[in-house]
Amino acid sequence: MRPRVVYVHGNGNKVRAELLKSQWDTALFGRDMAEASRMAYWAPVRYPEPLPDLRPDPLDGRTELIEESPAAVDRAATEPPEDFVARTLGEARLDAGEIALEGRAGADESALVDWLRKMTYLADTLAQAGEPEEPGAELPLEALPLRRSGRTAVFRLLVKHAFKDVHAYFFGGAGPAMREVVKETLAGVDGGPLVVVGHSLGTILAYEVLMELGREVELLVTVGSPLAITEVQDHLARPPAVPAGVAAWHNASDLRDLVALDHTLRPEYAPQERVTDLLVTNDSGNHHGISEYLSQHEVRAPVQRIFDGTG
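The line above is the sequence of Alpha/beta hydrolase family protein; the predicted structure tokens follow.
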């Protein structure tokens, strides 16, 4: 039987499900895949109406800008990650009760901003060199340069104010309903080899559902994933590991992607031989855009081989 692919979208409201699926199809395959692909469309759990068809997605890894002006959306699309973090944390500290961040707000925020700036410069250098890292190679910048207490506080504060769907998933009780959408979508797919593709928060949803179900998956693809972040792993329902039914897992990230703060899954998710970590160049405005990720050769080729019968 022919292969199928299930997509799991990421943070924020989206356009209607059929259009979103077609957009992912086009980015990954260059054409609409009709019944061969399905979208696990969980956005209605959090949003009463989809985005208008012709409106760009301002929430693709950025702050929630749906009610903001076009100028604010344009700013977010071009704002360097380190400036975004500084602005978000600065705005957050104006809220009552959040002025003190583990007693080290200034020092920890400064360390985070400096780290993101260095990460951006390193990514630009790698992109210009045109030589991708070997899969699984150790990266010179991986973990936040903070004490655990400070790192956790920065992460929770950033998630609360910038990635509200992530906060709702882990801390707001929305997780079960989001996961149920993924389960129902997978249940509707029978037959041949299965590929699951997740982006951003969608990688957490896909991962946790596959861990629970043990569904056989020939290839799991995660892009722009926060699953390597220690604070995310701390809140997973099960300890980090490759889901039992997953034969191969490819994880792709851009070093400048604010959501994928850590880039290597292999050290924490065993068995390591099933996991391939890939550095790619995502030149979308915030280095997190899904179309840029899915159009990368390193992401597309393994999926297309399965659909061509050569995988």
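Note on the example: The domain at 4-56+169-308 is CATH 3.40.50.1820 (Rossmann fold). The chain has two domains: 4-56+169-308, 70-163.
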